[in-house]
Amino acid sequence: MTEFKSNTVDIQKPASEIYHFLNNFNNFEKLLPDQVINWQVSDDTCSFTIKGMADLALKMGTNRPNNSISYQSITPSPFDFSLDFDLTEKESGTLVQSQLSAQLNPMLKMMASRPLQNFVNLLVEKLKEILEQKA
């Protein structure tokens, strides 16, 4: 299993608000890069295409309210992976880190490492930007 951990960001919001935002796949779309097309969502799954790369699909995993959110890959994703957000509430906000754990063969690992690392960093940066803009 190959793991990609994002930078930790400090979001000036309570963990409960961040958890609620991440627990809704309709909000997850707002965190994705511009290269994402064909977005589809239901209550507990979503699917999308990263232009020129792959079709991906996720379902909600095991979540711990106000502590962690987990998404699990489902078909048609080209490899098994999980995407987790860890929330650590502190006095003046919440520390958030995302982690993608993927079953990658050596060739795919070599090709995808930089884009996947950038992806997990982008997720937490956009999360901070979106939530701190909200009044």
Describe the structure in your own words.
By secondary structure, the protein is an alpha+beta fold. The protein has one domain (2-133): START domain (Alpha-D-Glucose-1,6-Bisphosphate, Chain A, domain 4), CATH 3.30.530. It has three helices and eight strands; from the N terminus they run ββααββββββα. The protein has helices spanning 15-22, 25-28, 106-133, and strands at residues 2-5, 9-11, 36-41, 45-50, 54-60, 68-73, 81-90, 93-102. Strands 1, 2, 3, 4, 5, 6, 7 and 8 form an eight-stranded antiparallel beta sheet that branches. Strand 3 and strand 4 (45-50) form a beta hairpin. It is globular and about 45 Å long. The N and C termini lie far apart (40 Å).
